[in-house]
Amino acid sequence: MAALGRGGGAQLADTGVVPVEAGEVPKDIKMATYTRGQPRSFLEDAKFRRPTVTEMIEKKLEYLRKENKNLNIYGSVFYGTTAGFSGILANFIFRYCFKVKHDALKTYASLTTLPFLSTIVTYKLFVTDALYSGNISQENCVVRSSLVGLVCGVLYPSALAFSKNGRLAVKYHTVTLPPKGRVLLHWLLLCQTEVKAMAVPLVFQMLIGIFNGLQHYAVFESTLEKKTLHED
Questions:
Q1: Could you tell me if 97 and 53 are in contact, meaning their C-beta atoms sit under 8 angstroms apart?
Q2: pLDDT tens digits, one per residue of 66-78
Q3: Under a CB-based contact definition with an 8 Å cutoff, are residues 126 and 76 in contact?
Q4: pLDDT digits (tens, 9 = 90+) for 144-187
């Protein structure tokens, strides 16, 4: 039997197969075990790496929300401020045309505050809220923003200054009273030359409206894309 075992071992040695002792693990099995363990390590790395990517996206979204909020606040306040300056200019023009020198502080305060507040409220209702509801396009956003500047920044202050200073002119008799049937024409002839200066705030308000609408829509679109990517 011993001779048979030695003969078998010699044959195995000749064929290149090394016998394995009891309790010893073959090298090829060890390699298979090591190779099988690598995917687990990769999955664990991906598991730890995925929250990091999520946190980066969340930080980016938070930054965009803050930027959008700042644009809503500062953009609307700046837009309202320019409308307030437009009201001051309109009040100055009509007081000069109607030769009014009474209640200066009262008229200037109302012509500064009312256009400022009306611009902020109107812009929020017709542009900001409509934009976040998803009902308007980029072109519509720009048009709405420009119309807010036109109406609340030029037409409303001009009409308000005309009305207030016209009443003061009638009250204190600073100008000749209009004949019957030609009231509006009489008042327009009194200020037709000076009122052309309102073309300056008209152009300025339209340009600010276009720029503000484009910027607002761009930040909103960027926030929406990042939010969709985060949800996916």
A1: no
A2: 656 666 788 889 9
A3: no
A4: 999 999 999 999 999 999 999 999 998 998 988 877 777 778 88
Separation between Cα atoms, residue 90 and residue 141, nearest integer Å: 27
DSSP 126: I
Amino acid at 145: S
- As given in the structure block, the two tokens for residue 147 are 């119309």
For 121, the token pair is: 């409220």
Rounded to whole angstroms, the Cα distance separating 230 from 232 reads 5
What is the separation of C-alpha 33 from the centre of its chain, rounded to a whole number of angstroms? 55
CA distance linking residue 10 with residue 191, whole number of Å? 123
Q: Could you write out the DSSP letters of every residue in 26-77? A: PHHHHHHHHHHHHHHHHHHHHHHHHHHHHHHHHHHHHHHHHHHHHHHHHHHH
